[in-house]
Amino acid sequence: MSVPASAAAGPRPVAAAHRIDKRFGVTVALDDVSLTVRDGDVHALVGRNGAGKSTLVSVLTGLVAPDSGSVEFDGRSAPPLADREAWRQRVACVYQKSTVIPSLSVAENLFLNRQGRGLISWGALRRRARELLETWEVDVDVQAPAARLSVEQRQLVEIARALSHGSRFIILDEPTAQLDGQAIERLFDRMRSLRESGVTFLFISHHLDEVYEVCDTVTVMRDARHIMTSPVPELGKADLITAMTGEATGLIDLGADRPTPAAGEERALTVTGLGVPGVFEDVSLSVAPGEIVGLAGAVGSGKMAVGESIVGLRRAGQGTVKIGGVTPRPGSVPAALRVGIGFVPQDRHREGLVPGLSIAENATLTVPERLGRFGFVGSRRRDELGVKAIGDLDIKAAGPEQPVSALSGGNQQKVVMARALANEPKVLVLMQPTAGVDVKAKETLLGTAAAAAVGGAGVLMISDDLDDLRPCDRVIVLFKGAVVAEMAKGWDDNELIAAMEGIGD
């Protein structure tokens, strides 16, 4: 049974957000969102990527001011944003990416900027650190450099640091994404123990099975809005998935007229027993010329690492990759390009673009041999290819000489796609190809991928966006580093998401 976010009966609220609105330019990040977390609860916050969870956490931790609405702790208004210590005394967030400083010791991290005035008594600091960790049953050497800690230990140190400020409300943001099964169970045991000691948690996860294992209440967000709040035992898994996904919208029929790949044809891409220790293992798949295959999975599934291993951004520890029967040198992007791979990386800013270069220069980075002979680059030929890219992908720009830094995010992504297609690839690997772009740009990007398949390329679409996956002939699903399902075209949204989130029948 669904209940209003701010009107549930029971213990007093430890934290509450009331009718929060937040915009970033024209983007609506939060739209009239309310949330109440009760004393002693483990309260789950779930939603698909872009639902607004991260912005709500930023509001709850005082990192972002809402445009309207209010935040309360223990029934009292939140402190001014500038009073960071007051916020630390009320709420702490342990992020997926650790905030401990590797070069400092555990003790120094625990009491950073709180060592006292004047000369520091290192003996006293380490003694305080030991007492703190013993109080919260954290078994870590206080003199050890934080760089030597495991992911699990760093999380426990961050929780202990938060508790040392006096906060009894802790937000855990994807805490299990980098943990193995035993470490996850130890984390859950620690959460249960801390709850008995008076600590309240807001638990954010893409793994819905974890919600049912450790949480009391769940709030669902979708499209920047609060959808529902319910006691976990009263909400069936199918209903939870439906609340997260809503009705399917978007580019359902894109590429529907694409011919079916010919049976028995040599594979454009063959991956056999690929693995990276601790990330994914024993992944095998193939893509035929003209076929679009999806690779899906939630955060921590290993899907992006598979793509990076195929294109040479990461060196796999085991297994083989073949492009049309040829095996490129593992861990080498140039080798992958030479045998016929084109790719769109997950992070266009870090791996996809050179901001200071023009559209034409970025679009042709992988094909210098087409720009001139004997190592000379012909600017006329480069600009001709840039003009072609602008026309083919409907890039909104003044011309091929315009710096990509001056383009919108969607147009930048189109430039990255143009570069991926520049070498007329046999295999096109697309990693989150429509992340952060509008519907029209998404339509162009996915239409371009479908056209590449019609032209004979094998396309591997790696994404957790359902619209990205709809043009696929089949979808392979990863969960925690292993292949758990393969679904043919026409798959059901709820079945696919259930597989991605690790929820069985």
Using only CA atoms, what is the Rg? 25 Å
Low-confidence stretches: 1-8, 248-252
Fraction of residues in helix = 25-40%
Please give the domain count: 2
The general outline is: globular
How many helical elements? 17
The CATH C-level name of the largest domain is Alpha Beta
Strand order of the largest sheet: 6-7-8-3-9-10
End-to-end CA span: 22 Å
Label the structural class: alpha/beta
| Strand segment tally | 19
Profile the largest sheet.
Answer: 6 strands, mixed
CATH topology of the largest domain: Rossmann fold
The chain-level mean pLDDT equals 86
Topology:
Blueprint: E1 13-24, E2 27-38, E3 42-46, H1 53-60, E4 68-73, E5 76-77, H2 84-88, E6 92-94, H3 106-110, H4 122-135, H5 151-164, E7 169-173, H6 181-196, E8 200-204, H7 208-214, E9 217-222, E10 225-231, H8 237-245, E11 269-276, E12 280-287, E13 292-296, H9 303-311, E14 318-323, H10 333-338, E15 341-344, H11 348-352, H12 359-363, H13 379-392, H14 409-421, E16 427-431, H15 439-454, E17 458-462, H16 466-469, E18 474-479, E19 482-488, H17 493-500
Parallel strand pairs: 3-8, 3-9, 6-7, 7-8, 13-17, 13-18, 15-16, 16-17
Antiparallel strand pairs: 1-2, 1-4, 4-5, 9-10, 11-12, 11-14, 18-19
Helix pairs in contact: 8-17, 14-15
